[in-house]
Amino acid sequence: MAGVLLVISMAVGIFCLARLNANKRENDLLANDVKERQSEIQRLNGEGEKVRQLLTPDQKATLIASHKLVANKAFGWSRLFADLEAVLPGSVSASRITVQNVYQDGGRIKAELELGVIARDYSAAMAMIDNMNNSGLFQAELRGQDLQKNERVTYTEYTFRLIYTPTAAYSETPPTDIASNGVGGVQ
Phi and psi at residue 55, in whole multiples of 5°? Predict the structure, then answer.
């Protein structure tokens, strides 16, 4: 009986040693993988820093504002587009939207945007401004207009500065400062 117990103990001991060696090999492989990934992260952070140094101050500010907007889950592009669609007259089309800044004012998230629209007549653009300012979501200010003509149609591209304030249900979470320090990647 003691002999059988000794054989079983030796078998269990050999199994444990084999398992310990396998775990050690796996641990070494994973440690090497971690080191490789850390060096890759450092390399990518270095490349990102080189790109950031090439950006103009305006591009840096736009990048930071864009990162804030993307990082802030409470501020949704879908909601912004739905709200814009609700205030744009049928004869006005949005041509571009540029994020200038995202900030918090009195506990509410606000976004400063530059909006370009195309309209065939001035009255449609003015109706859009009225719709926006009466919506409680937008504060619109006309910044410029550029007459465009081609063989078939004449239209004007209007540029607006907008302050967009989503409804309280969409702005309860404060914006993150993910891009405010200009350093990306894992910290």
Answer: -75, 145
Question: What value does the mean pLDDT of the chain take?
Answer: 82
Residue 7 lies in a domain: yes
Please, are residues 77 and 120 in contact by the beta-carbon 8 Å criterion?
A: no
CA–CA distance, 100 with 113 (Å, rounded to integer): 5
In a domain, 178, yes or no: no
Q: Measure the CA–CA gap between 87 and 140, rounded to whole angstroms.
A: 11
152-166 pLDDT, tens per residue?
Answer: 888 889 999 999 988
Could you write out the DSSP letters of every residue in 91-119? TEEEEEEEEEEEEEETTEEEEEEEEEEEE
Give CA–CA dist 177/181, Å, rounded: 8
Put simply, whether the predicted model's pTM sits higher than 0.70 gets the answer: no
If one counts the domains in the chain, the total is 2
For the domain that residue 102 is a member of, what is the CATH number? 3.30.70.60
CA distances 108 to 78, 103, 134, Å, are 18, 8, 18
| Structural domain for 16, as ranges | 1-54
Quickly state the pLDDT bin for 109 (edges 50, 70, 90): confident
Kindly state whether residues 50 and 99 are assigned to the same domain.
no
SS3 content of the chain, % helix, strand, coil (to 5): 50, 25, 20
Could you tell me if residue 185 is inside a domain?
no
Angle (CA) 180-184-187 rounded to 5° is 100
